Amino acid sequence: MSRYDVVVVGLGGAGSSAAFHLSAAGLKVLGLEQFGPLHDRGSSHGRTRIYRTAYFEGEAYVPLVRRAQQLWHELQGFARERIIQRTGGLTLGRPDGPTVRGARRSAAAFALPHEMLSPEEVRARFPQFSIRGSEVGLWDPDAGVLFPENCLRAHAAGAAERGAELHYGEAVTRWSARSGSVEVDTKAGNYRARSLVLTAGPWTPSVVSDLALPLTVERQFVFWFPPSDPDLYRPGRMPVFLWDARPEAETYGIPDLGDGVKVGSWKGKVAPTPEEADRSLREEDAEPVRAFVRERLPGLVPRETESISCLYTNSPDHHFLVGPHPRHPNVVVVSACSGHGFKFTSVLGEIVSRLLAGEEVPQELSPFDPGRFQSGTEGRRRRE
Ligand SMILES: Cc1cc2nc3c(=O)[nH]c(=O)nc-3n(C[C@H](O)[C@H](O)[C@H](O)COP(=O)(O)OP(=O)(O)OC[C@H]3O[C@@H](n4cnc5c(N)ncnc54)[C@H](O)[C@@H]3O)c2cc1C
Questions:
Q1: Three-state secondary structure along 243-294?
Q2: Residue 126 domain-assigned?
Q3: Which atom of ligand 1 approaches the CA of 16 most closely?
Q4: Which of 18, 55, 84, 274 has the most Cβ atoms closer than 10 angstroms to its Cβ?
Q5: What is the mean pLDDT of residues 360-370?
Q6: Which residues are CB-contacts of 374 (< 8 A; sequence separation ≥ 6)?
Q7: Per-residue pLDDT tens over the stretch 285-323
Q8: Is the CB of 253 under 6 A from ligand 1?
Q9: Which pLDDT does position 354 carry in this prediction?
Q10: β partners of residue 208
Q11: Biggest alpha carbon distance in the chain?
């Protein structure tokens, strides 16, 4: 039986970062991933992710996202591939809607650089967007794009260089924890460590089954649309955006990085398990997004050149799970990033490392306590 300081279960966005930070802290780390190093079954594939600072989901995220950005830039310092690209970002929508109002509140609370743009100013500066009526924009100059596959590769390579053992194609079938020790089984082996990190993304409900977490897995599609005037849609001219244009769900997009403008919406289809998610694209999935493109992004050809599926892991209050397992202080759970977690994965790995070094759970993490659903309180829903 092999012995480690920490075993990390799942080497996606959060797990690869945790392995990186734990091994940088000098710990002997074993990372176990059921699939290959970069796969398309979970939540961290699809070439690009948005990062933004003026966070409408809640002010609690702002210090985290700022630290996350610093860490992405540090990772860029030694990564061989592109990790982060600043494009600026626009939060568009009704001035009194939760998206614009929330982003504005976060920006004001932390004195973040930002500008409120009137409808006329949005039209003049960003003709790519066809806004209507009183819709306004919040310009966030510190927003941009992360490249998730490159981020995972850089975190995993950095962890391996610092001595972490990363086993791919090795699913964890069982774990148990006692004070100061954990045991983990796979078909290939049995491992012991002092601590355990559970970063299983959409598989969290089964991997952390003892907590009966009320999480849902939601299958999403994203689409790439070709621009008729490519110059207007490249980074530098077009920012990343988030828009409450459709009543059923926010829509977001990323400028053309050579493969078209990426557009997605937060409306997906709930699946009982990741394996049962229906990944075949149907008209009912594609047509609302094409209609959005036709009506709101008039310089794009409203017929996608590519689409892919991806999974969200949602908690009832749409906030993350980050912190010690309620019954096992040496087991840290990170998941339920509810469709907006990639930008945080750098800092989530650092938090895991600090918690396992014995730091108290900081007050800022209390909204993310993995034990908060044990009492039956479900908290606030995001789009109330
Ligand atoms: C379409 C889409 C668009 C998104 N856009 C954005 C965005 O613009 N900005 C943003 O910040 N976030 C975005 N997100 C959310 C973000 O990508 C996710 O929150 C984040 O990637 C989640 O990372 P994770 O580590 O929790 O999960 P994953 O990256 O899926 O990692 C979990 C890993 O655990 C492994 N695993 C599970 N069970 C086991 C087991 N038993 N044994 C071994 N390994 C196991 C899985 O195989 C997987 O590799 C988006 C998500 C989707 C789907």
A1: EEEECCEEEEEECCCCCCEEEEECCCEEECCHHHCCCCCCHHHHHHHHHHHH
A2: yes
A3: 25
A4: 18
A5: 91
A6: 211, 326
A7: 999 999 999 999 999 999 999 999 999 999 999 899 999
A8: no
A9: 96
A10: none
A11: 67
